[in-house]
Write a structure and sequence with these properties.
4 helices; 52% strand
Length: 528
C-alpha cells in the first residue's frame, strides 16, 4: 500500500514561522491612501469644475540596496482622477495609481527623482519630485570614495542565481470523478468515498523577469479515494493519486503595482496506485505524462510575499482509465531577493548564526526502536512519513552550504550526502547519495549555544538496491526527506550536533513505492 502523505502539517509549520518576516518587510511600506476624492462640491468658487490639486506631496526616502521604496501622493479634484508616475521625467509603464513601489532598489537607483502627474477632465497638475537615496558604503580606508555602482558588488546574503527564486504552498479543493469505472471488469464497490482537500507545493520557482518564470511543483491530495466492500469483500481499498508533478512556465501580467494576473502551462506527471482484492488485481496502477495548465490572480504583499488564488487542470487519460483533475486553491509564494548584510543585527547579542559551510558525520541506529518515527507518522502528531522497509543501522557523511537566509527567521542550505545502510530484516546492505535542500529555523538563542529545527523535503537521491527485505522499492531514483533538532556550540558556533529521523520515497512517481524508514540518526560536525 502506498505511504500515507504527511507533508502539509510540517510545511505549514515552517511557512508560518517564515511569515514572521512579513511584518518587518511590510512595515517599510506606507499604507495605500485613497486619493481619488473630489473637493467640496467638486467645483471652485466660480462654480466651474475643480482641476486636480496636490494635497500631500511624495516624500524623499533613504533606504539600503535591496529594500523596497514606496512613494505616495494625495490629490483632490473632480473624479475621475488618473495618475502617471515618472522617473527623472520619463513615464513609468504601468505606474498609474496613487502609490508607486520599487520592490528592490539597486545602487544605480541612488539619486533618482520620482514625480506624478494627476489628471481629470478639468486639468492637470504635477507633484514635486521626491528623491530616492540608496545607501552606498565607502570602501575601507577611503572615506568619501564612491562605492561600486552595482548591487552585485555589495555584501549580500544570497547568490545572484537565487535572487528571484521562490517557493510556495497552496491549499484548496481537488475534484476528480472517480467511480466504479476505474475498477477492472468484474469488480464493483458498494460505495466510494472521496476527500476533496489537497495541497500544492512550489518546490522551486525562478523569476526570469517580471513577466515570465518557471517552476517545479507537486500537488498532493490529503486523503485517498476509498473503495469500500469490493465484490462483497469487507474492507476499505484506498486508491491514491499521490502525485501530480508539474514542470511549467508561468506568465504574469501586472495590472498595477500590487495586483497581477497569471497563466501557467507545461508538463504534468500523474501517478496512481493499484488495488488488489483477495490477491487479484481490481484496479491497475497508472503513471503517465500529461498537460498541466491553469491561471489565477496574485497580490504582492511585499517584496518577498505574494498571495495567490488559482485554478489548474490536468486532463484525464483514457489508456490509464484516469479522470481529469481540477484544483482550486489559495496560498502564497516567498521570493528571495538580494539584500545587503546588516552588521548591527548580525553582531547583536544572541543574534542567529548563519554558518556558510557545515560538514557532519552521522550514526544511525534502531537501538532506541522506531518510537520517534511512529510518533511523528502514526500517532496524533502525524506530520512525517513511514515506510514499509526499515533500516537497522548505518553511517552518513554530509556537506551543506548556505544559499540564503533572512535577517532573523530562517536559513536555506543545499547539501550533499553519502549514506550506507543495513535493512532490519535481512541485513541487506545498500547505499544512498542525495542532493537536497535544507531549511533551518532558530528556536532558542543563547550564548554559547543556539538550538534550531531543521527540515528537508524532496532531495533527489539514488539507491544502489531496488529490492530490500524482499520488497520492490521501485527505481534507483527516489527522494530523501528528514526532520530533526540541532544546536551550534561554542561562542563562535564552530561545533554542530543534530538528531533526526529520515525517509526515502519516490513520491509515487513510480507505482512501486513502499518507502524506507530511517530511525534516529546522531550527527556531529563543524562549521566554517
Amino acid at each position: 500500500m502506498p505511504v500515507v502523505v504527511r507533508i502539509p502539517s510540517v510545511f505549514l509549520l515552517v511557512l508560518l514561522n517564515l511569515f514572521g518576516s512579513v511584518r518587518s518587510a511590510s512595515s517599510r511600506t506606507p499604507p495605500a491612501t485613497d486619493a481619488s476624492y473630489q473637493g467640496s462640491g467638486g467645483s471652485n468658487a466660480n462654480g466651474t469644475a475643480a482641476a486636480p490639486s496636490i494635497t500631500s506631496q511624495p516624500v524623499s526616502q533613504t533606504i539600503n540596496p535591496g529594500q523596497s521604496a514606496t512613494f505616495t501622493v494625495v490629490a483632490a479634484g473632480v473624479a475621475p482622477l488618473t495618475y502617471q508616475w515618472m522617473r527623472n521625467g520619463t513615464a513609468i509603464a504601468g505606474a498609474t495609481s496613487p502609490m508607486y513601489t520599487i520592490p528592490a532598489a539597486a545602487v544605480a537607483d541612488d539619486g533618482a527623482l520620482f514625480s506624478v502627474t494627476v489628471n481629470n477632465p478639468a486639468g492637470t497638475v504635477t507633484s514635486d519630485s521626491a528623491q530616492l537615496n540608496v545607501n552606498v558604503a565607502s570602501p575601507t580606508g577611503q572615506a568619501g570614495a564612491p562605492a561600486p555602482s552595482t548591487v552585485e558588488n555589495q555584501p549580500v546574503r544570497i547568490s545572484k542565481f537565487l535572487s528571484g527564486a521562490y517557493i510556495g504552498v497552496q491549499f484548496g479543493d481537488i475534484n476528480y470523478a472517480f467511480s466504479n469505472a476505474q475498477l477492472l471488469p468484474g469488480f464493483q464497490a458498494q460505495s466510494i468515498q472521496m476527500g476533496h482537500t489537497a495541497v500544492r507545493f512550489i518546490l522551486f520557482g525562478h523569476e526570469f523577469n517580471k513577466y515570465l518564470s518557471g517552476q517545479i511543483s507537486e500537488m498532493v491530495p490529503l486523503h485517498s479515494v476509498v473503495y469500500q466492500n469490493i465484490n462483497g469483500v469487507a474492507g476499505n481499498y484506498p486508491l491514491w493519486i499521490n502525485n501530480v508533478a508539474g514542470f511549467t512556465m508561468k506568465g504574469r501580467l501586472p495590472l498595477n503595482d500590487r495586483w497581477s494576473i497569471f497563466a501557467e502551462g507545461g508538463l504534468g506527471i500523474v501517478t496512481r496506485n493499484a488495488i488488489t482484492v483477495n490477491m487479484a488485481p481490481a484496479a491497475n496502477s497508472a503513471n503517465y505524462a500529461s498537460f498541466l495548465f491553469g491561471g489565477g490572480v496574485a497580490y504582492r504583499l511585499s517584496e518577498h510575499w505574494d498571495l495567490l488564488a488559482a485554478v489548474i487542470d490536468v486532463p484525464g487519460h483514457a489508456a490509464g482509465n484516469q479522470p481529469s483533475t481540477q484544483f482550486f486553491s489559495g496560498g502564497f509564494d516567498y521570493t528571495m531577493r538580494r539584500v545587503p548584510r546588516d552588521p548591527d543585527v548580525e553582531s547583536a547579542p544572541n543574534s542567529p548564526v548563519w554558518p556558510r559551510n557545515v560538514v557532519q558525520v552521522g550514526y544511525i541506529t534502531n537501538a532506541l526502536s522506531y518510537d520517534v518515527n511512529d510518533f511523528f507518522t502514526k500517532g496524533k502528531v502525524a506530520i512525517f512519513w513511514h515506510g514499509s522497509v526499515e533500516v537497522r543501522d548505518g553511517v552518513s557523511l554530509e556537506y551543506r552550504r548556505n544559499l540564503f537566509h533572512s535577517r532573523r527567521f530562517f536559513a536555506l542550505d543545499w547539501g550533499v550526502g553519502l549514506s550506507s545502510f543495513k535493512s532490519r530484516i535481512n541485513g541487506d546492505r545498500f547505499y544512498a547519495i542525495a542532493l537536497y535542500p535544507a531549511l533551518r529555523i532558530p528556536l532558542i538563542r543563547t550564548n554559547p549555544a543556539e538550538f534550531y529545527f531543521t527540515y528537508s523535503l524532496a532531495g533527489p537521491s539514488l539507491l544502489t538496491r531496488t529490492t530490500i527485505d524482499n520488497q520492490n522499492t521501485g527505481r534507483v531514483f527516489t527522494f530523501q526527506d528528514y526532520m530533526g533538532l540541532g544546536m551550534y556550540l561554542s561562542r563562535k558556533r564552530r561545533v554542530t550536533a543534530e538528531v533526526r529521523i529520515q525517509h526515502y520515497s519516490n513520491a509515487n512517481l513510480f507505482p512501486n513505492n513502499p518507502g524506507i524508514t530511517v530511525p534516529l540518526g546522531f550527527y556531529m560536525g563543524t562549521t566554517f
